[in-house]
């Protein structure tokens, strides 16, 4: 299979049954939400420690006696004086126990991120292999998470060790050369740079195809490295073509992200790269490697127009979202209670700072550009909704923590707002759509958590779990449509209509 045929097969595979593959890539956006549970637990423990030891009460009393109005940032002496007056009031919070809790929480967060990323990657590539073989991708991905996560973790560790090893060897060679003679050191540095770059490029090339070798050959780390190396030796043109395409896509995404950062579209680009570029590249290299092994099933081209598929997908997404809301009123009630409850907690938590620390919706709207703002709101909010929903597969807790975190932030922001009437006026038009959409995503996260737990215990089949993931994909399409309308209102209507009245 040449590169052109592989690209055509990739496009047809993605278009034919997107809901049988993309849920695992949506799950990839939820990795940070799952991982930050460690830090959230540590911060909750720190807060409890402050409360039980009276340190928080001491800090509150000390702060209440101070004028916390921030000084003019252009006056260094005023800033220094203000800092020196506030620092003693915060000394009760400088607890070794709190420092230990936060440090452990950060370490756990990093560990969770690594393990979750390995598991999600195993599911993604296994789903891709299932589609390449002509089977159902989601069931293959679910099986791959349990069976191959350790292998993928091993691949990442092995590549990291090779990069570190090559870099250290080059550094030692250069240092030794300079110890003998400066001219020798310069020559060794040049040779080490050139050789090191070639070696690292070869390492990256091998480990680019190693994940495909794992899922196609059903092998371990050593077998995957050997299989990827064999593929590159026998198909150097295909391997090089893929690497050129991958680098080109990476450069295009980086350029788009840089360009759209000024237009507020960075979040939309990041989401597109995660759920379009990433699965396309994984499919492309797996098709090339699978053809090398002779396991690629025929892929028929899609006759339907992209526009018709897009419109049909939106309609199905809306139907699935409405149906999900009607079937799960209890889950939505739980989500609303969590969101509103933590909103109240956020409001009360910042009470000592009300009047001293302020937020201003009118200041945040200075320089507001409706088209760019709408694009930014859409990208951010849909990303949050997707991550919240699929984070729920990690046994519900991350989905609830995401809703709680957003409620806490909104409650605190509202309490510190210097013109609350203006904030309410700004939020209401788009909030009547955006907030329910986020609650739907939270309820969907709880639902997926329950399904994943029942599957883990064996009371549900992998097919049933796959059905739930596919349905979640379509529900989130409906949520995305709702958020798109809310983002348009937030960009073009919410900042302006209330100004003549307030």
UniProtKB/TrEMBL annotation:
Pfam family, one: DUF7847
Domain of life: Archaea
Chain ranges of the DUF7847 domain: 1-278
Keywords: Membrane, Transmembrane, Transmembrane helix
Cross-referenced InterPro entries: DUF7847, SpoIIM-like
Positions of transmembrane segments: 24-48, 98-120, 153-177, 183-203, 240-261, 267-284, 331-350, 384-408, 420-453, 473-498
Protein name per UniProt: DUF7847 domain-containing protein
Species the sequence originates in: Halorubrum salipaludis
Organism lineage: Archaea, Methanobacteriati, Methanobacteriota, Stenosarchaea group, Halobacteria
């Amino acid at each position: 299979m040449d590169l052109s045929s592989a690209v055509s097969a990739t496009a047809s595979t993605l278009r034919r049954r997107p809901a049988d593959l993309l849920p695992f890539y949506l799950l990839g956006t939820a990795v940070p939400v799952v991982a930050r549970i460690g830090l959230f637990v540590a911060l909750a423990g720190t807060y409890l420690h402050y409360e039980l030891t009276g340190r928080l009460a001491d800090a509150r009393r000390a702060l209440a006696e101070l004028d916390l109005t921030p000084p003019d940032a252009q006056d260094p002496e005023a800033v220094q004086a203000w800092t020196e007056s506030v620092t003693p009031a915060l000394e009760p919070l400088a607890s070794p126990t709190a420092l230990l809790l936060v440090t452990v929480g950060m370490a756990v967060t990093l560990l969770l991120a690594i393990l979750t990323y390995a598991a999600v990657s195993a599911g993604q590539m296994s789903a891709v292999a299932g589609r390449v073989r002509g089977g159902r991708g989601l069931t293959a991905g679910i099986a791959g998470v349990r069976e191959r996560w350790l292998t993928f973790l091993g691949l990442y560790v092995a590549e990291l060790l090779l990069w570190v090893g090559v870099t250290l060897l080059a550094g030692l060679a250069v240092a030794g050369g300079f110890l003998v003679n400066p001219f020798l050191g310069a020559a060794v540095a040049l040779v080490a740079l050139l050789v090191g770059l070639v070696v690292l490029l070869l390492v990256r090339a091998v480990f680019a195809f190693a994940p495909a070798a794992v899922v196609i050959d059903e092998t371990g780390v050593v077998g995957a490295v050997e299989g990827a190396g064999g593929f590159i030796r026998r198909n150097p043109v295909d391997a090089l073509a893929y690497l050129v395409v991958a680098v080109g896509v990476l450069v295009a995404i980086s350029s788009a992200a840089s360009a759209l950062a000024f237009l507020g579209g960075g979040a939309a680009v990041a989401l597109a790269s995660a759920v379009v570029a990433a699965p396309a590249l994984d499919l492309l290299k797996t098709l090339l490697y699978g053809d090398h092994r002779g396991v690629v099933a025929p892929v028929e081209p899609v006759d339907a127009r992209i526009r018709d598929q897009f419109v049909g997908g939106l309609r199905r997404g809306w139907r699935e979202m409405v149906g999900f809301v009607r079937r799960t009123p209890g889950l939505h009630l739980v989500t609303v209670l969590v969101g509103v409850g933590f909103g109240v907690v956020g409001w009360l938590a910042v009470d000592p700072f009300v009047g001293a620390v302020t937020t201003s919706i009118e200041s945040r709207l200075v320089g507001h550009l409706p088209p760019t703002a709408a694009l930014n709101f859409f990208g951010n909010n849909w990303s949050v909704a997707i991550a919240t929903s699929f984070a729920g597969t990690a046994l519900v807790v991350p989905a609830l923590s995401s809703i709680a975190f957003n409620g806490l932030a909104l409650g605190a922001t509202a309490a510190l707002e210097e013109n609350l009437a203006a904030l309410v006026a700004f939020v209401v038009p788009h909030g009547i759509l955006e907030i329910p959409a986020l609650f739907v995503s939270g309820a969907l996260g709880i639902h997926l958590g329950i399904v994943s737990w029942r599957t883990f215990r064996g009371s549900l089949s992998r097919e049933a779990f796959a059905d739930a993931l596919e349905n979640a994909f379509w529900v989130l399409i409906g949520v995305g449509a709702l958020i798109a309308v809310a983002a348009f209102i937030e960009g073009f209507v919410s900042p302006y209509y209330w100004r003549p009245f307030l």
